[in-house]
Design brief:
The chain is mainly β. Helix content is 12%, strand content 41%. The protein is built from 4 helices and 13 strands. The protein has a 6-stranded mixed barrel. Strands 10-7-9-12 form a 4-stranded mixed beta sheet, with no helix packed on it. Strands 8-13-11 form a 3-stranded antiparallel beta sheet, with no helix packed on it. A hairpin with a 6-residue loop joins strand 5 and strand 6. About 3% of the residues have low confidence.
Length: 202
Amino acid sequence: MNTTVRLTERSGSTSSQRRKGFVPVVVYGAGSDSQSFTADAKTISGILASNPRAVLTLELPDSGKKNVVIQEIQRQPISKQLLHIDFQQIDMKAKLDTKVAFHFTGEPVGVKSGGVQQIELHELDIRTLPDKIAASFEVDITGLDIGDQLLVSDLPKHEGWEVLTPEDTLIVRISPPAAQEPTEEDTAEPAVAETAGEDKAE
């Protein structure tokens, strides 16, 4: 994935820039004043689809290159068009707080037996150096049986990561099969047997 984004000076209204395929952006942090630019919307969309938490290199007009992470994304609620991006400058030698998404692999044995997989946590909060940030955290859940659960404390250690999510946080559980809904026959009134000669006299 290309993690270099070339920024251009803003010109014209934001609406006209968006029509031309650009998205307004702001760059701030690292002790410098915030600066406003535009970026190619297609490039940003590709980055968001691949790894929205990647460390990026911005090429600023007349200002050289800066290492950043995406801090905030604004979209149009219905069309999901990109409206604005905030980039935060970072120090590559200083740890930062971020999130990493779980990528679950394997089919739990409990699901094969009819259990239901319930995911309770999709991302892990971590503190790490920028070059240790990953797009996802692969977790094998093949061995989980019905009634089993996976907590943050059960995760394998990842070099360079300080986990900030509490250890007792539930990530995924395998619940027993849902109770079967009673059929129409099950809920019908039981039939009453009749014997010849039981007719009531008029």
